[in-house]
Amino acid sequence: MKILLTGATGYIGKRLLPVLVELGHEVICCVRDVKRFNPPESLKQNISILKLDLLDEKSLENIPSDIDAAYYLVHSMSSSDDYDSLEALSAINFRNALKKTNVKQVIYLSGIVNEVNLSKHLTSRKNVETELGKASYNLTVFRAGIIIGSGSASFEIIRDLVEKLPIMVTPKWLHTKCQPIGITDVITFLTKSLGNPQTYNENFDIGGPDILSYKNMLLEFGRVRNLKRKIYIIPIMTPKLSSYWLYFVTSTSYKLATSLVHSMKIEVVCRDNRINEILNFTPISYREALKKAFHKIENNEIISSWKDAYSSSGLNFNISDFIQVPTFGCFKDHKTITIENKAVCIDRIWSIGGKTGWYYGNFLWKTRGFIDKIFGGVGLRRGRTNTTTINVGDTIDFWRVLYANKEEGRLLLFAEMKLPGEAWLEFKIVNNQLIQTATFRPLGLAGRLYWYSVLPFHGFIFKGMIKQLAKTS
Do the strands 421-430 and 410-415 form a parallel or antiparallel pair, or are they unpaired? Predict the structure, then answer.
């Protein structure tokens, strides 16, 4: 089958793509920013890339007419305050564009909506479902609650809470029940329903066999990790305080934390499990899903992470807009050092950030990350998805990767911290010289004052960092 895959650079899309190719399908990957799409070489012969923005009706005219099915895996829960209206408009544009094609089935992954009073996030998902359903093609909707897998937002938030806090004082929504499902099972549902008439024009709740409170999910996570944890629930924590609590303790952005808190007050339990019988499939338990996730992490096999989505920073931009580092009106810290072993130096650069740290003055880097969190930024808690590989679009702490070419020996990062301006950090190897350049384009007087106030620290940190990167052992 010829399949249109929206959200190909997202958490679910990256997991679904190789499975669809393995099943023999031809996949058209829809991406808004082509530079962010880095599929494995093994997939490239069976896929094509289509630059597409669901909010730009003109770009939707490029969708081929001979597609057989489409996956709608797009959402923008924390990209802006009016994400609900943007999501509805995206669904309408997509639905209208498909009128000109031969598509027979559209598969949409939504959230469980089995209560009358829904959060803004879940209401938006339901509205998208309604808009997609106003068409002649067959719509299949899967509604999932908490998705557990290496790199998923839910998994990483639970991991942050349990591994960082031996004792937790938590809001009362931890009593709310949900039905988590493993990411591999979500992918199975999405693929097994493809072309299956029994799933046409139906919506199904999907979940694992366990119905748990969020408190029990945290405690079970601790047991899997052999960590003893105490959780005390207090009724006085407001949604705003709960959002701040999640934001400061975990790697989530404040906007995403706010959306999650409002959703976590609502039970997300499956109405039934009839889809299991239709597809002859039984999902794994919450405990098994956790073990699978940690197996992937321990083997450095994380295919996708929510942290690499733009929503993790709250920014909304194309990488191509920033890949040319400006020169006019900018401040620069430019350092050069001779290296003896190019391969070792590149390996050090490609391991930077996350658990490795920044090689020099890590305390100052952590302090800058803490200050960033106080002012509503992302801080250092996103880390990095993979410890040895870097792809365009990945996050490295509070940086976004704009360009990464290991053979060339060049890595370009763009700052997503709160700044009165814009900042780039570049590492480049030319003729056995490591060139390290920090560029800052200030915004007004505040930007200039900021640069001069941190200049002494930059001199200390960047000088030490380039020396450490140039070491041969």
Answer: antiparallel
Closest Cα partner for 215 from 178, 181, 261?
A: 178
pTM exceeding 0.70: yes
Q: Which residue has the tokens 């792809």?
A: 391
Neighbours of 287 (CB within 10 A): 15
The rounded mean pLDDT for the chain is 85
Tokens 């960082």 sit on residue: 164
Torsion angles phi and psi, residue 226, rounded to 5: 60, 45
- Among 231, 236, 461, smallest CA distance to 368 is for 461
Question: How many angstroms separate the CA atoms of 367 and 363, rounded?
Answer: 6
Place of tokens 């530079």: 35
Q: How many whole angstroms from its chain centre is CA 282?
A: 27
CA–CA dist 195, 68 (Å, integer)? 9
Per the model's pLDDT, the better-predicted residue between 119 and 87 turns out to be 87
| Backbone phi and psi for residue 5, each to the nearest 5 degrees, phi listed first | -115, 105
Longest distance between any two alpha carbons in the chain, whole Å: 66
- CA-wise closest residue to 349 among 313, 383, 396, 414: 396
Give me 333's structure tokens.
């810290």
Q: 271, 180 in Cβ contact below 8 A?
A: no
Secondary structure of the chain in the HEC alphabet? CEEEECCCCCHHHHHHHHHHHHCCCEEEEEECCHHHCCCCHHHHHHEEEEECCCCCHHHHCCCCCCCCEEEECCCCCCCCCCHHHHHHHHHHHHHHHHCCCCCCEEEEEEECCCCCCCCHHHHHHHHHHHHHCCCCCEEEEEEECCEECCCCHHHHHHHHHHHHCCEEEEEHHHHCEECCEEHHHHHHHHHHCCCCHHHCCEEEEECCCCCEEHHHHHHHHHHHCCCCCEEEEECCCCHHHHHHHHHHHCCCCHHHHHHHHHHHCCCECCCCCHHHHHCCCCCCCHHHHHHHHHHHHHCCCCCCCHHHCHHHCCCCCCHHHCCCCCCCCCEEEEEEEECCCHHHHHHHHCCCCCCCCCCCCHHHHHHHHHHHHHCCCCCCCCCCCCCCCCCCCCEECCEEEEEEECCCCEEEEEECCCCCEEEEEEEEEECCEEEEEEEEEECHHHHHHHHHHHHHHHHHHHHHHHHHHCCCC
Q: How far apart are CA 45 and CA 118, in angstroms?
A: 43
Q: What does the pLDDT look like over 344-378, one tens digit per residue?
A: 999 999 999 988 999 998 888 888 888 888 887 87
108-131 average pLDDT score: 79
